[in-house]
Amino acid sequence: MSENENNINRRHFLKDGFWATCLAGLGVLGGFLLSKLKSNNTVWQIDPYVCVACGNCATYCVLEESAVKCVQVYEMCGYCDICTGYLEPKANPPDTGAEKELCPTGALKRVFVEDPYFEYNVEESLCNACGKCVKGCTVFGNGSLFLQVRHDRCLNCNECSIAAACPSQAYKRVPANEPYLLKKVEHA
Amino acid sequence: MIRFAIITISIAVFCLTSNIALALERFPPPEFESGYEFPSTTTPHPQQNIYEYIDTVVLLAALVLSSYLVLKKRSRRAIYILMVFSLLYFGFWRKGCVCPIGATQNIVLTIFDSSYAIPIAIALFFLLPLVFALFFGRVFCSAVCPLGAIQDLVLLRPINVPSWLESALRLFAYVYLAAAVLFAATGSAFLICRYDPFVAFFRLNGNLNVLIIGACLLIIGVFVGRPYCRFICPYSILLRQLSRLSKWRVTITPDECVQCKLCEDSCPFGAIRRPSVNWPQTEYGRGKKRLAVLLLLLPVLILLCGWAGSGLRKVTSRMHPTVRLAERIYMEDTGKVEDTTDASLAFRATGKETEALYEEALNIRADFGLGGWFFGGFIGMVIGLKLIAVSVWRKRTDYEAGRASCLACGRCFKYCPMEHERLKKLKEAAI
Predict the structure, then answer these.
(1) What ipTM was assigned to the predicted interfaces of this complex?
(2) What global pTM score does this model have?
């Protein structure tokens, strides 16, 4: 009987030892994480200088309507009459009134400023992040139109589905207090 | 007309270099005469920061409440209500992200990638359920986890899974955990998030393949209790091992077990352990020998599986986008494939050296070789220890909830006559 009791005690002792070890282990892990903590969360963002405007942003987002939208940095824009982000490459001459718009949803709007300049605006509710205008603007123009994750829409998934499908690995984790990677104006 | 000419030239330049990533200022911004001012680009801020703290507080509160309901109140109905609340809050309202299961990968990434800083909420989401498991058992699984809750709701016609099959299927969860750690440590992918079967239901939207897996699991879940929790969930592995040591845990009976066998079939998850029969004396010698062989087999298994895991590095490293890209570029350059992909075009547009890419990919593959030893070794160890565990005889006199397997759902409580006795006394005391 006494041997049996000893046995139980030994077992309890071992168990308590394991228990304390596990708790200490979790504590050490917690301490380690604490040393790496940042009060700021990270969010996903597209590096516009790496993005190739492949169109995956339109289809791979877990949201019904992609959280990625096209943005315009007006200081970079050339305000061109013939905008390669706005018109199809083989559009009719601008005086025919039958030019074809590049944007499939008509989200890129243009407003006359003064001769011969036009302001180009993205209507965010229509934009589906297909990147057609981005490609046109970046390849032939100044590249003032580019794609960005809009953080009022983004769910900030732990693994961004678009990031996993991005061919140029343009998605990055950025600090939540600076959640945008806007292109810098080069002429200054 | 000048602009037309510039466009033509730039098209020609593009065709020569096909360099899309570089932004050129081809058309200097105009100097407006009408006093036009540049509109500014809007940058709406993320709202997560407040929600994160709310989530963590709700998680802590739910864990405390769950522990109280499971161990003290012993009420299945209350547990059920808390479970539905968790499903609605963590699942449908917060869209199932971040969850402790996926947070495992963030922890691993923090350890291996010094540039990644972990948000406090994710660290707490990972640690809190484990600490609670160490004290109170798997109270997280019972009523807090939204993935467990959605499966628990569809469980209508539970059937018994034989224990050998259960153990065999559970091996998948160990492999899944090891793979998720391997891929997170190498910065390749967050496997658990990518194949989270129920998050698509929470968002009412998602990848079709994953949605099909989720639907299948729910259909299976009508008959087999919580298939994801028992056979797939990688986080459950951690919870299982910690709840083995828990200070307090679910007891079927609030008093002494009277061996009435009424609770025997009450658990849909096969977590109730019956009193053990005596080990036959004739088997004793053979059992000892078998145990000795298995103990010797353990290191062999670890090394063998580790070697196999390391040998798989060519396959496993393909999970990393850089390795995939390097293989693609190599195939294109050696003429094994004719066409190009978005990724290879994007790489060529950057103008980086192919050799540098190959070297980077080889380094990553070497990491996978080293990680493969741990990946395989872990699986080998699990198999070896499981074999030893089934060969060891443990004395058990009463019907008990399995320390590791019990999900603390509280279904068995009302099957115990002693519980009815307790409730009767409570009622009388209240009057």
Answers:
(1) 0.84
(2) 0.88
